[in-house]
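May I ask for whichever protein you like with its backbone structure tokens?
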Amino acid sequence: MGGKRLRLRRFFSRGDGRLVLFPLDHGVSCGPVAGLEELHRVLSYGVRAGADGVVLHKGMMACLEKVSGPLPGIFMHLSASTQLGPAFHGKVLVGSVEEALGRGADGVSVHVNLGDDAEPQMLRDLGTVGEACFRWGVPLLVMIYVRGAHAPKPVTDEAVAHAARVAGELGADLIKIPAPKDPEVMERIARCVPVPVVMAGGAKEADEAVILERIRTGLRAGLAGVAVGRNVFQHRDPEGFLKAIVGLVHEGLSAQEAARPWQ
């Protein structure tokens, strides 16, 4: 078994082929958003709730030292842009695979926005990171969206499917996409790429049942799980809601069963 497969097992440790990712990389793009002020506390309840993996920027990796108990898989995020700059959707690399290994990460993640003016550079960077991941045996999570001046408006399910295929073609080991509206498109995406695909949790949603039903639909369509951030760390009961998502993904709870505490 190669190093990449061993590291991937740290994210899929339950053996069911599914996972719940807890992305916490929002601080670079959005600043000190509500719910992420004390990141070590967020990481602690994320671990207690059963997240299979977290996504962090390099400077926040040190927060893991304050977390007790076994850690989940750790992706160090290599992409950055800010809302304060002139090109929010144009992500640039701010780290390397070698640095991530030195900081103790199990994998790396890269963000690509298809349809932005900077798309060619982001694809080039994805290729560079993918080559280094292959060389070092490091899992690569590709977060890929359709955003920017040249993106269709509204973004179609077909465009999302195209984005997923791009990530699969260019070497992703795990793909994160926004959830298509049509379950048949979800099924086609799951069939058309050779690696697991997780759906993004999306913008903050007030109704827990809506989020959970969306995740359940994705699982039934063949997606491998969910990457959920704001809808957990900005929830009134973040640890409890993350536990509910874990129960839905790994324990077969229905959306109604998982949402019961808040109904």
Notes: The beta strands are 19-23, 53-56, 73-77, 79-80, 92-93, 107-114, 140-146, 174-177, 197-200, 225-227. The chain has a mean pLDDT of 96. The first strand starts at residue 19 and ends at 23. The CA atoms of residues 146 and 160 lie 7 Å apart.
